[in-house]
Specification:
This protein is an alpha/beta fold and 190 residues long. It is built from 4 helices and 7 strands, in the order E-H-H-E-E-E-E-H-E-E-H. The protein folds into 2 domains: 73 residues, Transcription elongation factor, GreA/GreB, N-terminal domain (Helix Hairpins), CATH 1.10.287.180; 100 residues, Roll (Chitinase A, domain 3), CATH 3.10.50.30. It has a 5-stranded mixed sheet. Strands 1-2 form a two-stranded parallel ribbon. It starts with a strand and ends in a 14-residue tail after the last helix.
Length: 190
């Protein structure tokens, strides 16, 4: 899968992996020290260090898988300020109307289609970040203004209408794009 990220994201991934390696090395030292303190059946320090090492190993494996399964393309948000707006693309601000087919309820949203992991809300304009790889963004990307599309989303079938497409302003980008953070890696027990 291709994931679009802001410049510096790959460096953040590498730094997170290095931090995990340093943490693991310290835990191994703790485990060795606890091991030298006698009976392992009742040695809480040894058991705690061993479990902490396993948790770090799971995080490192999950991060490795995340990196191996995806291709990361760095995108500079400065290019979003002037890109053509014929169809909805990464970096555009779009006003969307979503009608749930089952309930007939209509919702209106204004989103900035962003890179992976962005989830901020601009308090001044009410614009929300919509990561490009979310189900809603995936259904919307490539649509033109005043286009309707019937799609299946995780919440059910909906009719989406792109009401408008525009480029963001620099102040909007400044408020919406947060510091780059590494991905949330969950501990999946195997």
């Amino acid at each position: 899968m291709t994931i679009y990220v802001r410049p510096g994201y790959n460096r953040v991934l590498a730094e997170q992996f290095e931090e995990l390696k340093v943490k693991r090395a310290a835990l191994v030292k703790d485990k060795i020290e606890a091991h030298s303190q006698g009976d392992l059946r009742e040695n809480f320090g040894f058991k705690a260090a061993k479990e902490a090492i396993r948790a770090i190993d799971r995080k490192m494996t999950a991060l490795d898988r995340f990196v191996a399964r995806n291709t990361f393309i760095e995108v500079d948000p400065a290019t979003w300020l002037s890109k053509p707006t014929a169809s909805l693309q990464l970096g555009h601000v779009a006003t969307i109307e979503k009608q749930d087919v089952a309930s007939k309820r209509v919702h209106r949203f204004t989103f900035l289609v962003t890179t992976h992991g962005e989830t901020a809300i601009d308090p001044e304009t009410g614009i929300e970040c919509l990561p490009h790889n979310s189900p809603l963004a995936t259904a919307l990307l490539g649509l033109e203004a005043n286009t309707r599309a019937k799609v299946t989303l995780p919440a059910g079938e909906a009719i989406l209408t792109v009401l408008s497409i525009r480029n963001p302003t620099q102040p909007e980008l400044d408020r919406l794009l947060t510091a780059i953070k590494p991905p949330e890696i969950e501990d999946d027990e195997e």
